[in-house]
Design goal:
- The chain is mostly helical.
- Helix content is about 70%, strand content about 0%.
- The chain is built from 13 helices and no strands.
- Helix 5 crosses helix 6, helix 6 packs antiparallel against helix 7 and helix 7 packs antiparallel against helix 10.
- The longest helix is centred in the middle third of the chain and has 45 residues.
- It is globular, with a radius of gyration of 18 Å.
- About 5% of the residues have low confidence.
Length: about 300
């Protein structure tokens, strides 16, 4: 029987710290920060873990050649168990989404689950792979918005999706290494994402207005977006200087563990500065846990 550590490695457990912030960012943007959010965040985590397990199941032959230390090729987790874990987590995620958010949440969670499986089983190794993965994260943000006014959350969903696109593009070069052009392009994308996270900030009554709000809260979105840009952008700059595989993997890890800072900026932009700081606090915790269980 596999140990809990083996299963945690299968689902890349620490990376799930980057997931609840999607839902919170969507809920904040859609004026839907209520009792449904914790349940929807839990559903999002379950679906994320399902995708990680399905990913390893789908890649088991490739991992046997390129990453024999992974749980399935090393023999610590059987392929059948990995598939069963993924299916069970998917069912649990959909069930929790329905319990927490009703039909409106299920209307987003079901295509989210479909996109996750489509990425793992079909799209991942195609040119459409990064776009499908970006769609997964965008839908995750909209899952949080399902209890409010989802259209208001579309800019936040697109921002998180754009970040995810850059991480996924880099992840395709984790084994072979990259050309210098790739990290240069993704770094430019990261700069645009950080700028988008502070554009069109909202005042305390929820109305979209340009300009700055008085007080320290007006500084939080920019501070968190800057933190995100320095952490993830710095890792990409190191890849541009030396594009070997180990640095690409480090940049992918930085993109995963740095996402809460971006999500926090989006939450703060929607008018919930303290909650945004709390969401961003998952970033350093994720980096610490990533030293024990790899998020990539």
């Amino acid at each position: 029987m596999p140990s809990l550590r083996d299963l945690a490695e299968l689902v890349r457990a620490p990376a799930a710290l980057s997931v609840p912030g999607d839902v919170v960012a969507g809920a904040a943007a859609a004026d839907a920060l209520d009792r449904r959010v914790p349940g929807l965040a839990g559903a999002s985590v379950l679906l994320y873990w399902a995708g990680m397990a399905a990913n390893d199941w789908a890649d088991r032959d490739l991992d046997a050649r390129e990453r024999p230390e992974r749980p399935i090729p090393s023999g610590r987790v059987s392929p059948g168990l990995a598939l069963g874990v993924s299916a069970g987590l998917t069912a649990a995620g959909l069930g929790l989404a329905g319990l927490a958010g009703g039909r409106r949440a299920l209307a987003v969670a079901a295509p989210l689950a479909g996109a996750i499986w489509a990425y793992d089983l079909r799209a991942k190794n195609t040119a459409a792979g990064p776009a499908v993965m970006a769609a997964c994260r965008g839908l995750d943000v909209l899952l949080g918005a399902s209890g409010g006014r989802p259209l208001r959350a579309v800019p936040a969903a697109l921002t998180v999706a754009a970040h995810t696109y850059t991480v996924t593009e880099l992840s395709r070069r984790e084994v072979s290494g990259a050309t210098r052009a790739l990290p240069a392009a993704t770094l430019a994308g990261t700069a645009a994402v950080a700028a988008a996270a502070v554009a069109g900030r909202r005042d305390g009554d929820g109305a979209d207005r340009p300009g700055r709000r008085p007080g320290w809260r007006s500084l939080v979105p920019a501070a968190l977006a800057g933190w995100y840009g320095l952490q993830y952008g710095g890792a990409q700059a190191r890849v541009a200087a030396d594009p070997r595989a180990s640095r690409v993997r480090a940049a992918v890890g930085a993109g995963i563990t740095g996402l809460p800072a971006l999500q926090g900026a989006l939450v703060a932009r929607a008018g919930a500065a303290l909650l945004g700081v709390a969401v961003a606090a998952a970033a350093p915790l994720g980096r610490r846990l990533a030293r024990m269980v790899s998020p990539t």
